[in-house]
Each structure stands twice: as structure tokens, then as C-alpha cells.
Amino acid sequence: MGDIFFDLANISHHHRLSDDQVRTLLEAYFGEAKPQTFARLKLMWPMSEMHEAMWGTAQSGISRLDEDFQGYAKLWFGRAAEALQDPRWDQWMKDLDGVDWCPSA
Fold it and tell me: Which domain holds residue 44?
């Protein structure tokens, strides 16, 4: 099973949700939107965007469809770069400091 925050990031970035909409998504999923869950989701945005960009890159080499997969990849590489430039990145990292996301059973 994958990381739920990757999946939530994938949904939220594909639909270009605002921060308030992301918090609403987190509230619907977890019952509340803690700063830690918001930070973890936002830190997953560039990973999800890189996933899309790499999919487009792979498709440009293997697909027989007449689609602009290179353009698709370029769009998502750009979005990943933009997400990595977010000035709140350091705060999100601080919000996750000391949080145990993989507690032992």
C-alpha cells in the first residue's frame, strides 16, 4: 500500500486546490486538519508532480498515441519546481519535526 499523503497530494494538486480546500479535504479524510497533516500533504506535492512528469517523459518514448507527452512532462516538471520554491517549505519541515509517521505496532 502506498502513502496516503501521496494520494491526497495527487488529488489536491491535480485539481489545483487552494490551501483552504486542502484543509477541507484533510478534515473530510481525517476528521480535522492539523498543521502536521497539512504540512505533510504539501510536502508531497512536488513528489506527486514529479511522478506525473516522469510518466509523461516515459510516454513520450513508448506511446504510439499522437499526444504531446513532452509538453505534459514539461508542465508537471514546472509545477514541481514551483512547489519546491514555496516560501513555506521550511515551516512545513518544522511542523513535522519529531512527528512519528510510522509508529511501531
Answer: 4-96
